[in-house]
Amino acid sequence: MKLYGVYGASGFGREVMPLLRQQVGNDLEVECVFIDDAGSGETVNSCKCISFEQFRNHPADYRAVTLAIADGGTRRKLAEKCAHAEVDTIDVRAANSIELDGSQIGEGLVMCGFSTITSNAKIGRHFHANIYSYVAHDCVIGDFVTFAPRVMCNGNVHIGDNAYIGTGAIIRQGRPDKPLTIGEGAIVGMGAVVTRDVPPGVTVIGNPAKPLIKD
Ligand code: UDP
Q: What residues sit in the active site (predicted)?
């Protein structure tokens, strides 16, 4: 039999589990479980929740996980743990998500309902596209990047590793010779309208988006 694990049994994990179950089908030879380092032993939405140790020692013929935790740094840590344990990852795509032509996408993708990747994007490992978000043509997106619901990322935008783009943010399109760049580890706040480059590690908010000044 095949065993698939949704790592993280909290908010996002509970949104990913039904997508995974729909993707892998209702087959007696397939089981889907949650994996959680805090909540193992429980049942969550009628699915078992087990520890990572139980998952990796399960006698299934094949095992793979999806990392269903919005925080990119946590996904990075868990991806290393899975690689070290020689546990594969599985991509999860909602049945109504859309991918057009010529994109290259790394392992561990999660595409929630109504999300879209248009054409010729290059996307790193463990990218999350939450509901209704999109990546348009020619974008280049790093590893462990997270799009919250309804992020609108227009064409020729480059986003560095571990960046987090908040709900409803709009990112202006760049040009082929001058992409709009959002640096590694940057955070774009909810509803922000990003019209110019965001430096690495900086949080921007508002319209037009400006660095958040903490007092
Ligand atoms: N978690 C885990 N191992 C880790 C970090 C987090 O199992 O190393 C679990 C944590 O116990 C929680 C879930 O992942 O159940 C993350 O939930 P949270 O609400 O923080 O994130 P979200 O579901 O909103 O992405």
A: 137
Least confident of 34-43, 141-150, 186-195: 34-43
Query: What distance in Å separates the CA atoms of residue 119 and residue 154, rounded to the nearest whole number?
Result: 11
First to last CA, the chain: 55
**Do the bridges between strand 116-117 and strand 98-99 make them parallel or antiparallel, or are there none, so unpaired?**
parallel
Going along the chain from its start, the domains and CATH numbers come out as: 2-90 (3.40.50.20), 91-209 (2.160.10.10)
Residue-averaged pLDDT of the chain? 97
User: In this structure, what token pair is assigned to residue 159?
Assistant: 């986003």
Q: What is the dihedral of CA 142, 143, 144, 146, to 10 degrees?
A: 20
Handedness of CA 46, 52, 58, 61 (dihedral sign): positive
Q: How far is the CA of 69 from the centre of ligand 1 (A)?
A: 6
Gap from CA of 10 to ligand 1 centroid (Å): 6
Q: Is 74 in the pocket of ligand 1 (CB under 6 A)?
A: yes
Res 185 pLDDT > 90:
yes
Instruction: Ligand 1 pocket test: pick from 17, 36, 54 the residue with the most ligand atoms within 8 Å of its Cβ.
Output: 36
Q: Which long-range contacts (CB under 8 A, 24 or more apart) does 130-139 make?
A: 130/12, 130/70, 130/167, 131/15, 136/173, 138/176, 138/179
- State the complex-level ipTM: 0.98
